[in-house]
Design a protein that fits this description.
Elements (H helix, E strand, L loop, with lengths): L3 E8 L2 E8 L5 H17 L7 H7 L6 E2 L2 H16 L8 H7 L11 H8 L7 E4 L4 E4 L12 H15 L4 E6 L2 E6 L9 E6 L8 E7 L3 E6 L4 E4 L2 E4 L14 E8 L2 H14 L12 E8 L4 E4 L6
Antiparallel strand pairs: 1-2, 2-6, 3-5, 4-5, 6-7, 7-10, 8-9, 10-13, 11-12, 13-14, 14-15
Length: about 300
């Protein structure tokens, strides 16, 4: 058995574990840690200073130039937001209104929901590809790349490790998983991947699936919610209505080649409630597991073993 080496840290607002197999030093792990810290410095909205916070501070006033990598990610996030399938990188004003999962969580009035909803319009963003300038066109708008950044960073770490000739590894960014290379634990090189059971504690699985190197990303409503007057409100807000999404699902786990694609597809399938009939036609898409609030689950493209 090839000996693994691991590094754990807290960054990106979550617990991170990086593991490489067959390496005799920690150079690749340290390089990945440096990359994570650099990207967090650029992209975070949890500190007063970052490239994204500079864009937000100038909302409705001026355009702000950002680095090429940040501009690339913002452009990808805005393009996905404009598709209207549920992902929205500008939903921050609504999240701060509801505060579900945070102190002061409440059910806001309909008028205030509609007012904040107008600040979440992805068409109200100006992008200049020549100068890498970004402008939010109305005061009060906020850009938050939290719903896509971990996937992008995981993909960057995979590329970094490939440059270091890492043969196999696992990137775990708070449950957002990316498997690199062939698994040293199986003769066929495939990975055994657990799928979280929404009704149980973290790391208690519905079952496992066996797949080649891929990303595994979950969207779900089972960890953060508010109960008010006997009604439960979860934290996944629908940018089309301003209210928590009405759904029978508890969670969706998707398996894709790239992690950033997994981030987007997990939200697409969660908001859709099912996979489109041609979803598996895309070579990026390897499978998905739908866990429902009534306790049953369904799979597409992936066999779940218990």
């Amino acid at each position: 058995m090839i000996t693994p080496q691991s590094l754990t840290l807290h960054a990106l607002g979550t617990h991170i574990k990086l593991t490489v197999f067959g390496e005799l030093d920690t150079v690749a792990l340290t390089a990945a840690e440096n990359l994570i810290n650099q990207e967090e410095d650029r992209l975070t909205v949890n500190r007063t200073v970052s490239e994204v916070m500079a864009v937000n501070a100038a909302a409705g006033v001026a355009a702000v130039a950002v680095s090429s990598g940040t501009f690339r990610l913002i452009r990808r996030a805005i393009a996905a937001s404009r598709e209207g399938f549920g992902f929205n990188a500008l939903i921050g004003p609504l999240v701060k209104l509801w505060k579900i999962g945070f102190d002061g969580a409440n059910v806001p009035g309909a008028d205030e929901v509609q007012r904040r909803l107008r600040l979440c319009d992805p068409e109200m963003v100006s992008l200049d590809a020549q100068t890498h300038q970004v402008q939010l066109l109305a005061k009060g708008m906020e850009l938050d790349l939290g719903g896509i950044a971990k996937g992008d960073i995981a993909d960057q770490i995979r590329s970094l490790w490939q440059a270091y000739h890492v043969q196999a590894g696992i990137i775990d960014l708070g449950g957002n998983l990316l498997f690199v290379g062939d698994s040293p634990r199986r003769a066929d090189g495939q990975w055994v991947i657990g799928v979280q059971d929404p009704a149980k504690k973290r790391h208690e699985d519905l079952g496992v699936t066996i797949l080649p190197a891929c990303s595994a990303v979950t969207s779900g409503i089972y960890e953060r919610f508010l109960i008010k007057d006997g009604k439960q409100y979860h934290h996944l807000l629908d940018p089309r209505t301003g209210y928590p999404l009405q759904t029978k699902l508890a969670g969706v786990t998707v398996f894709t080649r790239d992690s950033i694609q997994g981030e987007l597809e997990a939200k697409r399938l969660f908001f859709a409630g099912a996979a489109p009939v041609d979803w598996l036609d895309d070579p990026q898409h390897l499978g998905a597991v739908f866990a429902f609030q009534d306790g049953h689950h369904e799979t597409i493209g992936a066999t779940l073993r218990h």
